[in-house]
């Protein structure tokens, strides 16, 4: 057993849990209006673009936070500028080469599991909600840590429940954490995407 993190507010986005089942590149169109951070959940932008470094690539949505969005791809493993040089994150307004602001490598398999902290607002997620569903909460303009480039996306605790059209299935708490009591409102949960771009079937699990 490690340190129980369920009483510590330390968001880190959606980190792949277990093996990374697949990773693919996506383009971030020039001048995004949200930050794109490592461990951010990203969604499909609905089209492709001809890039200078990677040929034709699909794009991610770059104009809104992905709260409640049904076209989930997965989480960002790493970010690159328009020349494919590694960067901490892709910032709001980044122009790049005027076509793309940069590129992201995304863990985008439909069966990928993620580890994520709940947000600690309102009611904590409890054990009775294992197997139920939950939306993410991204914060203003996907505002992660601009020093480390790490996301601060979390699970929206108050959304957790049996409603079908929520983004993630709650698999179980992390083995080192304690879910749902008066002091443990930041439990880390293992989750899987319900509403995935490549397999949009609500309620999938393991």
What's this model, at a glance?
The protein has 206 residues and is mainly β. It has strands at residues 15-17, 23-29, 36-37, 41-51, 55-60, 72-80, 86-87, 89-90, 100-107, 113-117, 133-134, 136-137, 154-155, 168-173, 188-193, 195-196, 199-200.
What would you call the shape? globular
Question: Could you give a short account of the major beta sheet?
Answer: 6 strands, antiparallel
Arithmetic mean of pLDDT? 89
- Count of extended strands: 17
Compute the number of structural domains. Answer: 2
What would you report as the Rg, rounded to the nearest angstrom? 16 Å
Assign the structural class, choosing from mainly alpha, mainly beta, alpha/beta, alpha+beta, or little secondary structure.
Answer: mainly beta
Distance between the termini: 23 Å
What string, H for helix and E for strand, traces the elements in order? EEEEEEEEEEEEEEEEE
Share of residues in strands:
35-45%
**Unreliable residue stretches:** none
Specify the number of helices.
Answer: 0
The percentage helix is: under 10%
């Amino acid at each position: 057993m490690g340190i129980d993190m369920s009483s510590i507010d330390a968001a880190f986005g959606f980190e792949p849990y277990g093996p990374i089942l697949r990773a693919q590149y996506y383009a971030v169109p020039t001048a995004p209006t949200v930050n794109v951070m490592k461990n951010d959940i990203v969604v499909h932008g609905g089209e492709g673009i001809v890039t200078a470094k990677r040929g034709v690539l699909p794009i991610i949505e770059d104009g809104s936070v992905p709260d409640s969005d049904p076209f989930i791809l997965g989480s960002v493993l790493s970010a690159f500028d328009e020349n494919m040089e590694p960067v901490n994150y892709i910032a709001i307004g980044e122009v790049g080469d005027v076509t793309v602001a940069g590129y992201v490598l995304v863990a985008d398999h439909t069966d990928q599991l993620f580890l994520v902290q709940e947000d600690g607002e309102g009611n904590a997620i409890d054990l009775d909600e294992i197997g139920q569903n939950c939306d993410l909460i991204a914060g203003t303009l996907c505002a992660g840590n601009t020093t480390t480039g790490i996301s601060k996306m979390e699970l929206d605790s108050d959304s957790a429940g049996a409603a079908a059209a929520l983004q993630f299935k709650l698999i179980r708490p992390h083995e080192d954490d304690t879910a749902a009591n008066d002091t443990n409102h930041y439990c880390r949960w293992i989750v899987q995407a319900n509403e995935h771009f490549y397999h949009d079937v609500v309620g999938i699990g393991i």
